[in-house]
Amino acid sequence: MRAATLLAGLYPPAVRERWGADISREVSASGVRSWPDTLAGAARLWLHPGDWPETFTGQTRRVLTVTLFAIIATSGLLVRAVAPSTTLTADVRHPATSLWLAPLLLGIVLAAPLPPLRGETLRHLTAVAVRTLAAPGIAALAMVLTAWSGVAEHATGFAEAALVAYYWLTLGFTALRLCTLVARVSQTATLPTTRRLSTALLHIGTGLALAASQTLLRTAPHPDSLVQTLALGLLATVAISTGHDLRRKRA
């Protein structure tokens, strides 16, 4: 696949559908020198959904709903990567270090697409959920059974590296399939309104900003925690900026 096609594919779906071919031709004609501007343009548009065209009603809200849950999934992997942490927990017994979860969970509730309460539709969505999550469910079950068997405790060298790689691949695959499930459910479910989405993004951004701030409180900073802080801060900035843009559009 050509670099121009790959770069054009980084733009929001509605932009790709409307101007993707033109973007690809322009990048191909301009060459490598246009790549930085193309990447910057894609990033700017993702942060300004109010400027997206719509090829069908509700397209912007559907894309943002999936994107929002992708941000949450990525954040979960980032938090897990540096666990355990005394400054960033998810335990009701430690309310001070779990405070970041409150706005995050509220944002998830606000952004969740609501399926119609009809038997046929619910049966269809259940079937979709089973098909989408079957593979990651099997992979997670194999991981749990391996842990229970005690094999992981005695693994060394290549075997240990393979188990660690399998663990992270399973978590990443599960996160990807959960986002895929949200995308599929959003095709038939009632999408959140623009107001709910903007509020959800602002809450999620606030939660991630709190998480990033709490990781800075570590008494002995570690390169891993620094990377986690920067990544969480970037995700928080994306969520808050997008939420403000949606609020501006609604106003």
Explain this structure.
The protein is mostly helical and 251 residues long. The protein is built from ten helices and no strands. α4 packs antiparallel against α8, α4 runs antiparallel to α10 and α9 runs antiparallel to α10. The model has no long low-confidence stretch (mean pLDDT 86). The chain starts with a helix and ends with a helix.
Distance between the terminal alpha carbons, to the nearest Å? 41 Å
- Unreliable residue stretches: none
The string of secondary-structure elements, in order, is HHHHHHHHHH
How many helix segments?
10
Largest sheet: none
Gyration radius, rounded: 20 Å
Helix percent reads: over 70%
Shape: globular
Tally of DSSP β-strands: 0
β-strand amount:
under 5%
What is the average of the pLDDT values?
86
User: Based on helices, strands and strand pairing, what is the structural class?
Assistant: mainly alpha
Please render the helix and strand layout as text:
Layout: H1 3-8, H2 13-30, H3 35-47, H4 59-81, H5 101-111, H6 119-149, H7 151-154, H8 157-185, H9 194-215, H10 223-250
